[in-house]
Every structure is written in structure tokens, then in C-alpha cells.
Design goal:
Layout lengths: L5 H13 L21 E5 L2 E4 L4 E4 L14 H12 L9 H13 L5 E5 L2 H16 L3 E6 L30 H4 L2 E5 L3 H11 L3 E6 L15 H12 L2 E5 L12 H5 L5 E4 L10 E5 L1 H4 L18 H14 L4 H23 L4 E5 L2 E5 L8 H4 L4 H13 L2 E2 L8 E2 L6 H18 L2
Parallel strand pairs: 3-13, 5-6, 5-7, 7-8, 8-9
Antiparallel strand pairs: 1-2, 2-3, 4-10, 9-10, 11-12, 12-14
Helix pairs in contact: 2-10, 3-10, 6-7, 11-14, 13-14
Bound molecules: ligand KE4.
Length: about 425
């Protein structure tokens, strides 16, 4: 029984008149899965309700920030209390220091951290900092990894180890992208080759320690360790983009889970608890290069905003409680195994990838290890899966190349209901 989506359709039509594509971020437009994007009216715990009153179990979770679920009472209360004191001062506040201290205590490689307003600002600033500190220009990134809409990181995938980056968007100049090299994730031979050729020109390697923007692709054995060795040997910096994985995969982030200490860590999403916060941090000797103590300039009117910082503090304090990551792991494992079993039962080729509460179902019979193999997935099958699940009350990311996120508000009943919807949907995909 297809839900009624009339109101969302009307709202989308009006939005398109005033906002490019009717959305404030492209992935929300459902272009990868077709159909009209749902306009969401409210969220509570693991559920969201659209403008037509239809309820869904939510696995987008605002693309990762809502690890506690929607409208968590402690987060809502923290925002409300902060708002009563004023919304922004453009001056230091005690809460910013509290959040900075909490991040420094949680993330072992971070002695100091600068708060900004988005993950993009964090990665853009981290790249500038790495170039400023090393005096070098080259940046290595990995195809399929997304670090926000930073000009120098919007580099066409597949540039390979021999050709320098070419712009992946109009408006990005060749000059801006020409110092960026895009390599295949998990391909250490390509990385070794570039370091042999020009290691002394590389300012930094930026990597998602667990990739979440081509679907979920974990690091292969030794991948992160070798990046750490190569950067250290050559004087380049290692940047872990933990905007997704920070406080998601462990309280200390992916770096705690894999035991690797990067030079700079970027954060976002969860540290804002659903409000706009990004951050970048590292050793004191590196962070002191940032203005006003150093020469590398970075600024922001609303950086450290009291409301956003309050939401972040309430979120991270809750994550410090015992057992939260075990619970996320347990739900992730049940969901992954249930999806795998449902696809096997339906005879639909799939590859399931998961780390903790980040998971993804690729509609391919290949093992997905990088962007190249991720692209073997059938976007047509995913589209059918997405809409079948949506009609059965489960809201998945509207793209094959994103991550399903589980929150602490998800229940065993939610997971069971999701798997029941998946069994029914996958049967319609068979053949
Ligand atoms: P924001 O500027 O969107 O806060 O963060 C950029 C960013 C940086 N690094 C990583 C690893 C990220 O995943 C992101 C943003 N993630 C996407 C979802 N895959 C945001 C969703 C969107 O673009 O609307």
C-alpha cells in the first residue's frame, strides 16, 4: 500500500521556485533514486514523520549527527537553556572551552582543537594548516572519499597516480585542483609510487579512516598503518577526516578503533548533536600555527556558537556513558546479518559492508574494496530497494553510495521491522 505523499509533492514544487533543486544540499533531492523527496515535519527517537503524516524508521539520521536519535530530551533541553541566555556573542564563552576540552580528552592525537561550523570548513582549514605548516603544496586524497565541497578536494575521481587532479565541478579552477592527487582507496602501491616520486612535495594525505561516502568501505589490513609510515618518513601530515567516524565508531573515533594517530583530525556531525559544528585539531605544535597564535588564517562569525556547542556537549556527555558502543555494535551486527540473509533468501546478489553502526548494502556480487568496485553496484537495484523500503516505512539514504546510520534510539523492534520490510522488498527484486 503506497503511502500518500501529496503534501511533500506540493511542498517540493514550492521549494523548487525559491531554492535550486528545491533542496539545500543536493543528495536530498532524491535524484539518485528518483521520485519526489519527502519533506520531513518532525523526528523523535528513531522515527521521522513526513509532511503527509507518514512515519518511518530513520537510517539517515541527518547523515550521521543524530547518534542519540531525533529530539533527544537532553539535547533539546540544552539548546533551550542556552537560547535563554542569548544565541551568539562573537566572543569567547565557557562552553566552547568545555567542548574543546572534552574533544581533546576523547581524541588522543588532539591536544588543541578549533571549532568551526561544518565539516567542509574543518577539512578546508586542515588542508590550509597542513600546507602552512609544511610549506608544501601537494595533497593526496582517495577516490570515493568526500571531504565536503572544498575546492581543492573536488577532484575528478580516477585521476590515478600519474595525472594530477582535474576539477570535478565547474567553478573549480585547474590551478586549485592541480596540486591534488586522487588515488584508489586501499591501493598502497599507488600511494608508494607517488611518495617515491614526490614525497618531499606532499603536504598531507587526507583520508576517511573508514570511507562512508562511497557506501561503507573499511580500510584494508595495513592501509592506515602504511599511510602513517609514509607520511611520517616524508614529513607530510596525515589528516583523518573523522567527520562521520568521530565519536561514531568509538568515543575516541576511528583512530582509537584502529590504533593510528594522525597529525590532524577533522570532526563534525555528532559533535554538534544536530546543530552546525565542525572542528579540526591536532598536536599543540601544529595547532599553534593557526591565527592568532600563528600565521595560518582561519575565522568564523558563528564558530563555537553557544546553542550548537550546548547540543554537542549534551550529545558527547551521553556518549561517555558505559555500553553505548557495545549497543551500537550489537544492533549493527543484527541488521547486517539480517540483510545478508534476506538477500541470500531472495537470490539477490549483494555485498554487505559494516563497521560498528555504519553499514551499507551494495547491490553487486563483487567484494567492495574501493571506489572502482563500489561502482559495480547496480544503482537501479538500489533504487528499487530504496523505494520498496520507503513504502514499508523504512527511510534509507537516497543513494547507493552513502551510509545507513543506526542511533542509540533504535530498538530491537525497529531492527526486526526493518528486516521484515527488507525480506518483502528483496523478494520483489529477485530475477
Ligand atoms: P559538511 O560540510 O556537510 O558538514 O561536512 C562535509 C563532510 C566532510 N567529511 C566527510 C567524511 C563527510 O561525510 C562530509 C559530509 N557528508 C555528507 C554525507 N555523506 C553530507 C550530506 C550532504 O552533503 O548533504
Amino acid at each position: 500500500m503506497k503511502p500518500n505523499w501529496t503534501k511533500s509533492g506540493q511542498l517540493f514544487q514550492e521549494a523548487e521556485a525559491y531554492i535550486p533543486g528545491g533542496v539545500n544540499s543536493p543528495v536530498r533531492a532524491f535524484r539518485a533514486v528518483g521520485g519526489t523527496p519527502l519533506f520531513i515535519r518532525s523526528g523523535k527517537g528513531s522515527k521521522i514523520v513526513d509532511a503527509d503524516g507518514n512515519e518511518y524508521i530513520d537510517y539517515v539520521c541527518s547523515w550521521g549527527p543524530l547518534i542519540l536519535g531525533h529530539a533527544h530530551p537532553q539535547v533539546v533541553c540544552a539548546i533551550a537553556e542556552a537560547a535563554k541566555q542569548g544565541t551568539s556573542f562573537g566572543a569567547p564563552t565557557e562552553r566552547e572551552t568545555e567542548l574543546a576540552r572534552l574533544i581533546c580528552e576523547a581524541v588522543e592525537s588532539v591536544d588543541q582543537v578549533r571549532l568551526v561550523n561544518s565539516g567542509t570548513e574543518a577539512t578546508m582549514s586542515a588542508i590550509r594548516l597542513a600546507r602552512g605548516v609544511t610549506g608544501r603544496d601537494r595533497i593526496i586524497k582517495f577516490n570515493g572519499c568526500y571531504h565536503g565541497h572544498v575546492d581543492s578536494l573536488l577532484v575528478k575521481a580516477g585521476s590515478g597516480a600519474t595525472t594530477l587532479g582535474i576539477p570535478d565541478s565547474p567553478g573549480v579552477t585547474r590551478g586549485t585542483s592541480s596540486d591534488t592527487v586522487g588515488l584508489e582507496y586501499n591501493n598502497l602501491d599507488a600511494v608508494e609510487q607517488v611518495f617515491r616520486r614526490e614525497g618531499d612535495r606532499i603536504a598531507a594525505v587526507i583520508v576517511e579512516p573508514v570511507a562512508g561516502n562511497m557506501g561503507v568501505v573499511p580500510p584494508g589490513p595495513g592501509f592506515l598503518e602504511r599511510l602513517r609510515e609514509l607520511t611520517r618518513e616524508s614529513g607530510a601530515l596525515l589528516i583523518f577526516d573523522e567527520v562521520i567516524t568521530g565519536f561514531r565508531l568509538a568515543y575516541g573515533g576511528a583512530q582509537a578503533r584502529y590504533g593510528i594517530q594522525p597529525d590532524i583530525t577533522t570532526l563534525g556531525k555528532i559533535i554538534g548533536g544536530g546543530l552546525p559544528v565542525g572542528a579540526y585539531g591536532g598536536g599543540r605544535h601544529i595547532m599553534q600555527a593557526i591565527a592568532p597564535t600563528g600565521q595560518v588564517y582561519q575565522a568564523g562569525t558563528l564558530s563555537g556558537n553557544p546553542l550548537a556547542v550546548s547540543a554537542g556537549l549534551a550529545t558527547l556527555r551521553t556518549l561517555k556513558e558505559n555500553g553505548v558502543y557495545e549497543r551500537l555494535e550489537q544492533m549493527g551486527a543484527v541488521l547486517e546479518e539480517g540483510l545478508r540473509a534476506a538477500a541470500r533468501e531472495a537470490g539477490v546478489p549483494t555485498y554487505h559492508s559494516r563497521v560498528g553502526s555504519m553499514l551499507c548494502t551494495f547491490f553487486t556480487d563483487q567484494r567492495v574494496m574501493d571506489y572502482h568496485t563500489a561502482l559495480t553496484a547496480s544503482v537501479k537495484k538500489y533504487r528499487q530497494f530504496f523505494h520498496g523500503m520507503l513504502q514499508r516505512g523504512v527511510y534509507l539514504p537516497p543513494s547507493q553510495f552513502e551510509t545507513f546510520f543506526i542511533s542509540l534510539a533504535h530498538t530491537d523492534e525497529d531492527i526486526a521491522q526493518t528486516l521484515s520490510a527488507a525480506r518483502e522488498t528483496l523478494k520483489t527484486l529477485a530475477g
